[in-house]
Design a protein that fits this description.
Keywords: DNA integration, DNA recombination, DNA-binding. This protein has 3 domains: 101 residues, Integrase, DNA-binding domain (Double Stranded RNA Binding Domain, 2-Layer Sandwich), CATH 3.30.160.390; 98 residues, Tyrosine recombinase, N-terminal domain (DNA polymerase, domain 1, Orthogonal Bundle), CATH 1.10.150.130; 191 residues, Orthogonal Bundle (hpI Integrase, Chain A). It has 16 helices and 7 strands. 48% of the residues lie in helices and 9% in strands.
Length: 411
């Protein structure tokens, strides 16, 4: 078919297919600025004639025929004109898309988690962060670290956490979920993702609540304390377990304690901010029973800087598994953990009607009160009376309430 035989626009596909080449290439209008370019070798392609923002006309290729059918070519032309109406050119739009694609390829989950890690390092206890980071490196990064954050959807997140759920590692899963949610919050507020795909996923997975910080009931506490007092394998570990029960401190903060932090004459433990979970200094009152335990421990480790040194290298703290192994040895595996002593103390003191603010201060919980952030001695004297009464009660369970010196025995 000759181009002179065309009778209507837009052209039917049979017309496009039948157009014959000429000695020189030519264009034939399909309407609305769209043209079919027919070359002398009979190849054909679609081109759009458009006006640039500077007022000059230019041509843009929209694909070759028959790969691009007339209907698709018209849609491409419409889309392109819409871009031009918004003040950009097709070439600029294509370049912007390529740049976005390059940015997305760099904005991976692994890169986002590295950024999160750097942010948390400024405010979280190094040991606690290290544990979470190891879990992230072990489970999260291999699964989705390479994925651009813009492609992560809630369904993908749900599938990942259900796999962790199937492994039974609920506590680890919860830590990873909280970290990932915080990281995506950071990205969402910066406009790097439209929404946080992690938020709400906890409603559709098992929490395994209670599996991480197992603790016995209040009725079982006396038997537990007697079993701890009789623990035969390590006097040092026995002291640690008793101090955890007496004071409700975090196991990691106690394991890493240095002698320089203690004023035994005045019954005080001054934890520096850099060693606490919430990165704020804590002043803890010590009952005479706790002081006696520490004086006993000084006979073993007073020549070292650490109160509870590692048996293989006294420059390092005792193993974080020591308490777990000891509790397992006395028959409390799965029933009581080192951190679980905090739950025991909290429940007992709340049941006995102590002031909730005093209990929270003893547990070093952040309450949002500005005063609590800066005053490490908050409620010191009421807390001293509170821990003294609790210590008396604990040693009443053990049977040594009136004989503090008996706790200095060697097992």
């Amino acid at each position: 078919m000759k181009r002179s035989d065309i009778r209507s626009k837009p052209m039917a596909e049979r017309v496009v297919a039948a157009l014959e080449p000429e000695d020189k290439a030519y264009r034939v209008s399909d309407g609305a600025g769209l043209y079919l370019y027919v070359r002398a070798d009979a190849t054909k392609s679609w081109e759009l004639r458009y006006r640039k923002p500077d007022g000059k006309y230019s041509w843009l290729g929209l694909g070759s025929y028959p790969d691009v059918k007339p209907k698709e070519a018209r849609q491409r032309a419409t889309d392109t004109k819409e871009l031009i109406a918004k003040g950009t050119t097709p070439r600029q739009h294509k370049k912007a898309q390529e740049q976005q694609a390059q940015t997305a390829s760099r904005e991976t989950v692994a890169a986002l988690m590295d950024e999160w890690h750097g942010m948390k390092a400024k405010s979280v206890d190094a040991n606690s962060l290290r544990k979470v980071w190891l879990s992230i490196q072990r489970h999260l990064i291999p699964a989705m670290g390479h994925e651009p954050i813009s492609r992560i959807q809630p369904a993908y997140i749900l599938e990942f956490f259900r796999k962790l759920e199937a492994l039974g590692i609920h506590a680890t899963s919860a830590k990873i979920r909280r970290a990932l949610a915080e990281a995506f919050d950071m990205a969402a507020f910066a406009g790097r993702v439209s929404s946080n795909p992690v938020r709400g996923v906890e409603r559709f997975i098992e929490s395994g609540k209670g599996s991480n910080y197992a603790h016995v009931t209040q009725q079982e506490v006396p038997a537990l304390m007697r079993a701890i007092d009789q623990y035969p394998r390590s006097p040092q570990v026995r002291v640690v377990m008793l101090l955890l029960a007496l004071n409700g401190c975090r196991p990691g903060e106690l394991r890493q304690a240095a002698w320089s932090e203690f004023d035994l004459e005045n019954g005080l433990w001054d934890l520096p901010a850099e060693r606490t979970k919430k990165r704020r200094a804590i002043l803890m009152p010590l009952a005479p029973q706790s002081v006696a335990l520490l004086r006993d421990q000084y006979q073993r480790s007073g020549s070292f800087s650490l109160v509870f040194p590692n048996r293989n290298d006294p420059r390092k703290p005792m193993s974080n598994m020591a308490v777990s192994k000891a509790l397992e040895h006395i028959g409390y595996a799965g029933r009581q953990t080192g951190h679980g002593f905090r739950h025991i103390l909290s429940t007992a003191l709340n049941e006995r009607g102590y002031n909730a603010d005093h209990i929270e201060a003893q547990l070093a919980h952040v309450t949002g009160n500005i005063r609590s952030t800066y005053n490490k001695a908050l409620y010191l004297e009421p807390r001293r009376a509170m821990v003294q009464t609790w210590a008396d009660e604990i040693y009443g369970m053990i049977g040594a309430a009136n004989n503090i010196l008996s706790i200095q025995k060697e097992a």
